[in-house]
Amino acid sequence: MPVRPNLTYPTALVLRALTRGAGYGFDLMDATGLPSGTVYPLLRRLEAAGCVAARWEDEAAAQADGRPPRRYYEITADGRALLLRARERFPALDAGLRVSPGSLPALP
Amino acid sequence: MTPKPSPAARLVRAAALLVPRESREAWTREWIAELHHQRRGGADEGALALRALGAFADAWTVRSLAAEEGTEEPATVPAALRAEGRRLAATLCLGTAIALSTLGTVLAHLRPAPVPMIALAVVAGVALLAAAANAARVLSGGRTGVLAGGVLGLALAIGGALHAADAVPGLATSGGVLATWSGTWLVAAGLVRAMRRPVTPV
User: Fold this and answer.
1) Which of A103, A79, A101 shows the shortest CA–CA distance to A92?
2) Which residue from B29, B54, B62 is facing A35, i.e. has the nearest CB?
3) Which residue in B15, B25, B55, B121 has the most C-beta neighbors within 10 A?
4) In this complex, do B65 and A37 lie within 8 Å of one another by their Cβ atoms?
5) pLDDT at position B29, please?
6) d(CA B63, CA B44)
7) DSSP label at B191?
8) How crowded is residue B181: how many other Cβ atoms within 10 Å of its Cβ?
9) Nearest CB neighbour to B54, from listed A1, A24, A36
10) Cα(B92)–Cα(A36) distance, integer angstroms
11) CA B126, CA B120: separation in Å to the nearest integer?
12) Who's near A10: CB < 8 A, 6+ residues apart?
């Protein structure tokens, strides 16, 4: 059975934070102010629902930099559709993010 | 010498045990990489450990999703707790039974014998040993525990009755000691065998 993510405020925050571009787990925690025990489970459910896609950073590039590769998350078309629905429910969504407003791309 | 893992890394590795085996390595790698980057960015170990606590919720989510997708046997918290609870109950029953049956044997050695105490100890010992035997049976899925509890209870009851009646004191005392220890070892052996079996969710 396909996973259907709940359209909650934290879900919307994570999706909105991902519209800035690919992000990793702890980056999303900083951007949303949500704890790890909320962000990661959300990412798993969103990924299972096809709203978020995950990919590993290029290993060679990370090793050249002397660090382990990270796993990046990106919003998908389904995720964007979910976010648009979320914005109707939470109009002041952008105000809940801990990022500069200028870094957030405009939504259609 | 291998560097000592940080508290945060220990938490992540503990949480990883909840993650289905096929995705555990990648899951752990992601968390350890995040911790590494945070540490490089100057985060202190306390803050990292706090963030690592979220690994348990994440691990549980990964496990639940795997169960929903049918790639992992569903395991619920109540099931795990029930399995642990049964083990605990069995251990407590066994410990109490050993204590009471030993008390009965000690009392049986006293002269003059406090008959009501002996009778009480015998009854309590038999009841609790039967409970322990039943717990061992539940855990082992076999009849060994029941047999051990039955034989022990019967021997202890006969020994106690003989002693209380002062019919054959030597026989009664020997019977009580023999019954207590052989029965205890039988039940303990059943319990140990049961403990070695993997716990399957019920």
Assistant:
1) A101
2) B54
3) B55
4) no
5) 95
6) 29
7) H
8) 15
9) A36
10) 38
11) 10
12) A32, A34, A38, A39, A42
Q: Decide: B125 and B118 in contact? Cβ < 8 Å.
A: no
A54-58 contacts at long range (C-beta below 8 A, 24 or more positions apart): A55/A22
DSSP-assigned states of every residue in B31-88: HHHHHHHHHHTT--HHHHHHHHTHHHHHHHHHHHHHHHTTSS----HHHHHHHHHHHH
pLDDT exceeds 50 at position A7 = yes
| Residue type for position B193 | R
Residue with tokens 């076999």: B142
pLDDT in tens, chain B (202 residues): 566 788 999 999 999 999 998 999 999 999 999 999 999 988 899 999 999 999 999 999 999 898 887 765 555 545 555 555 666 666 666 666 666 666 666 665 665 656 666 666 666 666 666 666 665 555 554 555 555 555 665 665 565 555 555 544 555 555 555 555 655 665 565 555 555 544 443 3
To which residue do tokens 């410990």 refer? B95
B52 lies within 8 A of chain A by CB: yes
pLDDT digits (tens, 9 = 90+) for A41-95: 999 999 999 999 999 999 998 899 889 999 999 999 999 999 999 999 999 889 9
DSSP label at A102?
G
Structure tokens at B197: 């079996």
Q: Is residue B27 a contact partner of residue A41, using CB atoms and an 8 Å limit?
A: no
Q: Note if the bond before A5 is cis, omega within 30 degrees.
A: no
Quote the minimal CA–CA distance from B5 to chain A in Å. Answer: 16
Nearest Cα to Cα of residue B101 among B31, B21, B188, B170: B188
Q: Per the CB < 8 Å rule, is B65 touching A48?
A: yes
Of the CA atoms within 13 Å of residue B156, those in its CB half-sphere come to 35
> What ipTM goes with this model?
0.91
